[in-house]
Design goal:
This protein is an alpha+beta fold. The protein contains 20 helices and eleven strands. A hairpin with a 3-residue loop joins β3 and β4.
């Protein structure tokens, strides 16, 4: 609370004050009370803080001494009197002298800590082995066998193919082996992304949003942020939506009339294709519907999995394909919100690349994403972007004299694949979707940030009834 008040009131920027003066200034200017009353309250707080600090540090230090002396009471009593003497001496010293002494002794604490680290290293190693052995006897030496190795970055050489594995794979012994990478992350080099500026989105049952950046920034809803974690030389970010294709499938499995199913079967097309066809010619906003893509909770930016989906605006004239469209639009709004979180934090998103089965099959969805996000979009040039990216990083593990590539970033930009077609925002649709997105943000704030927790209350009622 003290730190927050200092930051909010700007007390830390005021020249000529230090120590308790900074706190006094913060509370006097931050609390809606007369300054004299604020000063008195602060004085009481400081008195209690000082008193409890004296008692707390004495207790802590005596316990430490008790451990070191094996409970020798005479030594503890001598220390206690020295401690009391220091308490009386302290108030007669200058603040600067007190801080200097405190800094010296805090620095000296490093000496016993280092001694303890060296003295207990063998004990820690043994306890670690015993712990893993208790989990499984085969794991007893897991630290030495699996973890005790140099840390390598993405695109570097992890080692070289042994004779036995070379024979198994039909390759040459000594072939460089690249470091491992998460499958979703390898889709970036697979789509030719080796530098910042382009967001990679894998659209499937859920969606994974990935970015490269030269800077590190705290972004709401980002589930992973690692330097060199996706491509070398850059910070790798990962966010996502936990319900995309899943709620399209939920709708077609539960909410489409049999007449639609029969039509799709008779024409030999999927129900998704049929719904998409029925939406041909629809204008942005024509359905009059708005949805929240929370049918499996929210990953980014709220990180709250106790929220539920919502569709509003329906009436007796609403058609199944219009509901289907509202769900697609909802996932696009969710993606735009993620993009804005990045851009507000200083990580620019200039374009999008989509991969996965859904964008490869549904051009309407891709165009909606382009219109809602007001970004140009390209589609992965392969159905196996992750596998291609892994192969590219494998190439990068070999030396430049063999591959011709200086690093993994260059190899990605030269060997990654995207389709030639570029989806560009339709200005008319962009204008309408901007209005709808503002309504989406209103619902997002109202239901997702505590203004109205009706979704969570409904979940609680359901859980209580099911548990009876």
């Amino acid at each position: 609370m003290t730190g927050l008040s200092i930051v909010l009131t700007g007390a830390w920027q005021v020249e000529g004050i230090e120590g308790v003066q900074v706190t006094t200034y913060a509370f006097q200017n931050g609390l809606p009370l007369p300054q004299k009353l604020t000063a008195f309250i602060l004085m009481l707080c400081l008195v209690f803080f000082a008193f409890t600090t004296i008692l707390g540090w004495d207790y802590y230090s005596e316990r430490c001494l008790e451990y070191l002396t094996n409970g020798h009471q005479k030594k503890i009593i001598v220390y206690r009197w020295l401690y009391i003497l220091a308490v009386f001496i302290g108030p007669y010293m200058t603040v600067s002298a007190v801080w200097t002494i405190a800094d010296i002794f805090n620095g000296l604490m490093a000496i016993p800590n280092m001694i303890a680290l060296f003295a207990l290293s063998g004990v820690v190693a043994k306890e670690t082995k015993d712990f893993f052995k208790a989990l499984d006897p085969a794991m007893e030496n897991i630290v030495e066998e699996k973890l005790d190795a140099p840390i390598k970055s993405i695109g570097e050489t992890a080692g070289y193919l042994t004779d036995s594995m070379a024979r198994e794979l039909g390759l040459l012994a000594g072939t460089p082996v690249g470091t491992g990478i998460i499958d979703a992350h390898s889709s970036l080099p697979g789509c030719g992304i080796g530098t910042p500026g382009t967001m990679m989105i894998i659209v499937g049952t859920s969606s994974c949003h990935m970015m490269l950046s030269e800077t590190e920034a705290g972004i709401a809803g980002v589930g992973g942020l690692v330097k060199d974690g996706i491509m070398p030389g850059y910070f790798g970010y990962e966010a996502g939506q936990c319900c995309v294709g899943d709620h399209f499938a939920w709708f077609t499995d539960n909410c489409v009339p049999e007449s639609y199913e029969q039509e799709a079967r008779s024409r030999g097309i999927s129900i998704h294709q049929l719904l998409t066809e029925k939406l041909a010619g629809y204008k942005a906003g024509q359905s009059g519907l708005l949805a929240l893509d929370w049918f499996n909770g929210v990953r980014s930016p709220l990180m709250d999995f106790n929220l539920n989906g919502l569709i509003m605006g329906m009436n007796l004239l609403t058609k199944p394909e219009e509901i289907y469209l509202s769900l697609i639009e909802a996932t696009a709004y969710g993606t735009r919100m993620i993009i804005e979180q990045f851009e507000d934090a200083g990580v620019p998103v200039n374009a999008l690349v989509l991969s996965g089965g859904i964008p490869a099959k549904n051009k309407m969805l891709v165009q909606i994403y382009s219109d809602v996000c007001n970004k140009e979009i390209r589609i992965s040039g392969t159905d196996q972007a992750s596998a291609l990216g892994a192969a590219i990083l494998g190439i990068a593990a070999a030396p430049e004299r063999i591959t011709g590539f200086k690093n993994a970033n260059e190899a990605a930009e030269k060997l990654g694949k995207v389709r030639d077609e570029v989806y560009k925002p339709n200005p008319d649709n962009v204008a309408v979707y901007d209005k709808l997105y503002q309504e989406y943000k209103t619902l997002h704030k109202y239901f997702g940030t505590g203004e109205n927790d009706v979704m969570k209350r409904l979940n609680k009622i359901r859980e209580d009834r099911l548990s009876e």
